Amino acid sequence: MTLCNRIVALAVVSFSLLSCSESVTTEQSSKKYNYVVIFADDMGYGDLGVYGHPTIKTPYLDQMAAEGQKWTNFYVGASVCTPSRAALLTGRLPIRSGMAGEHNRVLFPDSEHGLPESELTIAEQLKEGGYATACIGKWHLGHKEQYLPTNNGFDYYFGIPYSNDMDNVILQNANSYQSYFDFWKGPERQNTASFNVPLMRNTEIIERPADQNTITKRYTQEAIQYIKRNKEKPFFLYLAHNLPHVPLFASDDFRGKSLRGIYGDVVEEIDFSVGQVLNTLKDEGLAENTIVVFTSDNGPWLIMNSEGGSAGLLKDGKGSTWEGGMREPCIFWSPGNIKPGVIADLGTTMDLFATFSSLSGLEIPNDREMDSVDLSSVLFENKASDRNDMFYYRNRELYAVRLGEYKAHFITQGAYGQPAKEYHETPLLYNLNVDPSEKYDISTEHPEVLAEIEKLVEKHNSKMIKGEDQLESRTPN
Amino acid sequence: MTLCNRIVALAVVSFSLLSCSESVTTEQSSKKYNYVVIFADDMGYGDLGVYGHPTIKTPYLDQMAAEGQKWTNFYVGASVCTPSRAALLTGRLPIRSGMAGEHNRVLFPDSEHGLPESELTIAEQLKEGGYATACIGKWHLGHKEQYLPTNNGFDYYFGIPYSNDMDNVILQNANSYQSYFDFWKGPERQNTASFNVPLMRNTEIIERPADQNTITKRYTQEAIQYIKRNKEKPFFLYLAHNLPHVPLFASDDFRGKSLRGIYGDVVEEIDFSVGQVLNTLKDEGLAENTIVVFTSDNGPWLIMNSEGGSAGLLKDGKGSTWEGGMREPCIFWSPGNIKPGVIADLGTTMDLFATFSSLSGLEIPNDREMDSVDLSSVLFENKASDRNDMFYYRNRELYAVRLGEYKAHFITQGAYGQPAKEYHETPLLYNLNVDPSEKYDISTEHPEVLAEIEKLVEKHNSKMIKGEDQLESRTPN
Lengths: 477, 477
Description:
Chains A, B: It holds the Pfam family Sulfatase_C. Two copies of one chain form a homodimer. Chain A has helices at 3-19, 59-67, 81-90, 94-97, 122-128, 168-173, 177-185, 187-191, 215-229, 262-283, 323-326, 351-359, 376-381, 447-462; strands at 34-40, 69-75, 132-137, 156-159, 199-201, 204-207, 235-240, 290-296, 327-333, 341-348, 389-394, 397-403, 406-412, 422-431. By secondary structure, chain A is α/β, with parallel strands linked by helices. The first copy, chain A, folds into two domains: 3-20 and 32-387, Alkaline Phosphatase, subunit A (3-Layer(aba) Sandwich); 393-462, Arylsulfatase, C-terminal domain. In chain A, helix 2 crosses helix 10 and helix 9 packs parallel to helix 10. The longest helix of chain A has 22 residues, at 262-283. At the A-B interface, helix 2 and strand 10 of A face helix 2 and strand 10 of B.
């Protein structure tokens, strides 16, 4: 971000700290769209009714999809939490910002760093354009003060700074995955919310451990209040639920209610929350002036068995560069503006940066490589998407590339090591439109496609400056 | 069927043969619902947009689901064609009628028999109740005259008598599955419709080979004409598409149009066909007086690779007793009558017999074991389904049983032999609501459920009279 912007942002943060509420921007424009991004955590491609789940009932999201656009080839920037969130907020592959780590795939409570100050977030961008901005929910881009949302363009923050399972007890016991999983099976998991995950308002810890039984409900109330408070000015609300990431919690109204078990209870509470947000927008007369996007940060955590979600017909899940790890349900909604339908074109969370900027008349920065494509002509005119490629990084290596309907895997590896990491001299090649489950390797039939993808990779690599690994430094207690 | 009914049925068939058109029943009632059953062939649980497919676009079926009930735990009576169709039409497990074979899983062009005369079809039942009845599409319950639709309660028949791949050339070359598949890759597959599958009107062959490029379109036209001709009287239309069973054909308007390749072209043409049928019902003022059901005969034929469909998140496909073989997309539609929503209750194609009979005031026969449950209170009042179990037969053996949310596998076997057949001393047990993909065996945790299922099986077996194998006799040329 430019120095000038930075000063403005810091000034607003200071104001925010003093007043304990979001900034009051004087620049208002009733013609500007509001943006609401609802981001679930570890929800799979197949976990919503309208994406094919048989026993998780999501009437509000189904209705949102019927009224809006249901995207079926929509990606996140990484298959795990921290880099995926960095991608959404910066419009850049996390390898560029350094939010993709070689040894640590995400930030931990003992991590020292977070999203570098040099990055420009979509919140900073919109704030610069006169928007009120809020982050409600999970952050996971650095829990130390300088990395918190209020120092990254958000006027207001209410939520938890890292994953909902990142508790001292858990981490101290998690010498291996097995002990990590065993922990969840113990009594601590069943009956208490005694996790030392902090709940914060702006930069202050207001509850520790955060009571996660009511956390989805409270995020929703915060979101509704925020919308009502800001209805006279353009706003950007980033509502990032920390569920259905394990451990799973649902409020009394939802616990034990879903056919799908606790995982279904949690998704159904998020669905209800979406309904409440959309109804608030309607009731406040904001629906036609607001764009709402619903998606998730990465695929389902399959090793959690039935406490993890489903990628539907896609292969593998969270942590992998198979489709199940990085393709997500995504619904765009804005009655009267967005043309309803099913969109099989390519899109990514990184594209929200360019799309919102374009719609709000803001220029995207030209001092850095961006990975953000303006999707507004797909949304508003049903035109073909300008995005034709997708780069699948794992940690700091490029594993796979999609070009049009084809995806080449240079490296494959199961989400958690099995099957083992394998380099493919001749990349595996799949036609994702015909074969979304990545079953039928067609590399020998289409050397010309591989050649084209190799060229694309060369071009990509020639411009790649990998940001310094921000996830490496940790200070264990 | 009773002797009296039989005589009436035969008389009508004779009339039909003479006039080459459907019978004109004098008994008419504007208060009776019309029934349209649209039956696809080898379409998987995951092959429609509203069931989660990313690149097959099915706007008409999606809309039908939005206006009607989308069922997510709806089964067929067998995982392959002939017995599945027998189940739908008789309301009985095919093991009872003898339409489940020990060595032959389906009927072939050299099969000698078909659905036994002693069976009462839903067409015979409704015809007795004053309905005009038609079968348009694939039959596959016996191609010799006495087994054809016109001798099984249908006034009118237009379609092919067995599967669309059952051609002399194919069968003579099909010494193994491999040669069978190789055949499809050959030039015969690509450019010609030169299959000696006959197209019939009533009992007459009118085209051979049937031109399958236009067959879906012609079935649709026949269905529309039939609806228009019969709008003054109650009718039952069984529209059984012979696609997307391989070999795949689409008309000029659809071939090459889908992102999903030829399989998608075919499904999209069927989707368009459904739209045309529903629109015809609306245009003719029949929508509020007609119940339309869309489903398929069994899961996707996975060994056909990308020319086979997808079971979505369900396991395995056609031929197996895993969920992917026998759970199907199913949409019920009747605007103003059927309460829209997603239904996760159990239902089966066999239940159409009791449901239609109940709605039309017809008693179901009491001289035989029926496997048919009246679903009308689910459809019209959103009450819980009275069906709580499901029996999964393969050939003539009981492989698995579902009771409520639990499914026990006594025997498992991959659709085509691999993994090999295995008897489980302690049955595998899955909770299908929580674990629809049948991943997490919970048999050791729930011996009480297994005990309950064992009891159910004992009761089931005590009443089981297996019908003589009607699929065994073949007369090879």
